[in-house]
């Protein structure tokens, strides 16, 4: 929940997609709804999860029940069901992030939407606005991760 990618993208992350020097996770176009490569800025909190997993020598960040296969895209939903938490959905976490980004974090709409992997603006606007605002999204993700971890004592 620190990166705000749809559940299937996060659970399918392969270690080869992570550039730990430049602190970027590059999700290939075949795994995005928009059909375009999506770069996710990595934060210290994300690195705290990713780096220890490298020692396991798996190809997947979150390995499923079989070696070198990703965690199911239903895993988070199943966890929520087992916890018997009423009214909580995986998509609701993304919605909470989006509200927080605007209302508490005071980050621009475009930055929040791009962080969620959404297309922003009309086709004409996108033809001119070619930046993915990575540095601005890095600030947003840092702020969100600090907030989220402060809420759970981390």
UniProtKB/TrEMBL annotation:
Q: Name one GO biological process term.
A: DNA integration
Q: Which one Pfam family would you cite for this protein?
A: Phage_integrase
- Record the organism: Ponticoccus litoralis
Q: What is the lineage of its organism?
A: Bacteria, Pseudomonadati, Pseudomonadota, Alphaproteobacteria, Rhodobacterales
The record's listing under PANTHER family reads: PROPHAGE INTEGRASE, PROPHAGE INTEGRASE INTS-RELATED
Q: Per UniProt, which keywords does this protein have?
A: DNA integration, DNA recombination
Which family is this sequence assigned to?
A: Belongs to the 'phage' integrase family.
A GO molecular function for this record? DNA binding
Its protein name is Site-specific integrase
Answer yes or no on keyword Transmembrane helix: no
Domain Tyr recombinase intervals = 18-132
């Amino acid at each position: 929940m620190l990166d705000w990618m749809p559940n299937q993208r996060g659970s399918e992350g392969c270690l080869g997609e992570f550039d730990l020097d430049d602190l970027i996770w590059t999700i290939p176009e075949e795994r995005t709804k928009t059909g375009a490569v999506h770069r996710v800025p990595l934060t210290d909190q994300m690195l705290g999860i990713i780096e220890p997993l490298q020692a396991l020598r798996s190809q997947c960040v979150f390995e499923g029940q079989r070696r070198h296969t990703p965690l199911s895209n239903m895993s988070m939903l199943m966890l929520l069901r087992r916890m018997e938490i009423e009214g909580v959905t995986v998509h609701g976490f993304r919605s909470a992030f989006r509200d927080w980004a605007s209302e508490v974090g005071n980050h621009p709409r475009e930055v929040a939407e791009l962080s969620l992997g959404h297309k922003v603006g009309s086709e004409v606007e996108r033809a001119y606005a070619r930046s993915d605002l990575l540095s601005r999204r890095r600030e947003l993700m840092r702020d969100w991760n600090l907030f989220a971890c402060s809420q759970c004592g981390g």
